[in-house]
Write a structure and sequence with these properties.
The chain has eight helices and seven strands. By secondary structure, the protein is α/β, with parallel strands linked by helices. A hairpin with a 5-residue loop joins strand 1 and strand 2.
Length: about 180
Amino acid sequence: MRLSEGMPAVDFSVTDIHGNNIKLSNYVGKKVILSFLRHVNCPYCNVRVHKLIGNVVRLQRSGVQMILFFENSNEKLLQSVLHKGVSPFPIIGDPEKKVYNQYGVQSSVIKMLSTFITANNREIVSLAKTLETPKEKDEKITNSLIPADFFIDENLKIVKAHYGKNIDDHVTIDEVLKFAGVLTF
C-alpha cells in the first residue's frame, strides 16, 4: 500500500552498515528524509548518492536527518567507497525489502524501461563508471525496483511521499534542501 501526505510514517527498527540500531521513532522532534534506492551498482542511485554527498554539510547544519535504504546487504554496501561518504547519515541494507514493503515501494518493468527513454543515460552511465562499486554476485537484486522518497516532520507525519516514475526519479536536491530549511524559493 502506498503512503501519502498526512499519514503517520511507519516505524521500523533496523541495523545500518556500521551496526547501529536505527529506529524511526527515535527521531521524534527532527525532520527526516527517507530515501529508498535500488542497489549499490545502479548508476542512477550512485549519481543520486553522489549529489547528496555534495550537500552533507548543509544538511547536517540544518538538523535534518537522512536515512538511505538499499536493496543490498549491509556487507555489500560497506564495500562501496561512495556509500561510506554519506556518513553520518545511516545507510541501511534491506535485501528482504521489509521496510520497502512497509512504505509501498514497488517494482515495475514498464517504469524501469521508461527510464531509458526519458533519462540522460550517457551522462549517468559515464559518471557512474568513475564511482567505485562492488560487483554483484551472490545477492538477488530486483532490477525493476522503483525508488521513493519521503519527507517526515518532527511528529513523524509524512509531509511528502514521492514514488518515482522511473528508476531515475527522486525528489530534486533543491526540494531536499528546501525541506531542510537550507534553501528557500
